[in-house]
Task: inverse folding
């Protein structure tokens, strides 16, 4: 099947746009420069790291309301980010009520910036095509 004119190449043997060469996160699953960091790219996880980058730290309840996520969904995604070292979770009690607060780690900030740089390179290469 012939590639569309201006389309980004998908097969590993195809030439890559210069803007995308070597742009990928430390934890990216594949060596393909078009492959995004799957850990951050998922909608809820991208929402979590973006919200934390803007706000510094947020409680579980704040994130849940902001992202429109269920308890279980947010908890599972936050745990994946925490396990990867992107997010720090601190649990405490406030007036006998549990309080879970999240913040982005230095690694998380760096990986989010790499992800954003990668997205910008893809957008730029697409616009220039």
Result:
């Amino acid at each position: 099947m012939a590639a569309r004119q201006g389309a980004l190449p998908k097969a590993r043997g195809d030439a890559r746009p210069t803007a995308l060469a070597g742009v990928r996160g430390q934890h990216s699953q594949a060596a393909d420069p078009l492959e995004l960091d799957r850990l951050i790219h998922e909608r809820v996880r991208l929402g979590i790291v973006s919200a934390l980058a803007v706000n510094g730290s947020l409680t579980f309840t704040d994130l849940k309301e902001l992202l429109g996520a269920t308890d279980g969904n947010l908890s599972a995604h936050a745990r994946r980010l925490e396990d990867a070292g992107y997010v720090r979770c601190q649990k405490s009690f406030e007036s006998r009520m549990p309080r879970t607060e999240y913040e982005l780690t230095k690694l998380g900030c760096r990986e989010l910036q790499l992800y954003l740089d990668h997205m910008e390179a893809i957008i730029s290469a697409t616009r220039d095509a």
Remarks:
- Residues 1-31 have pLDDT under 50 and may be disordered.
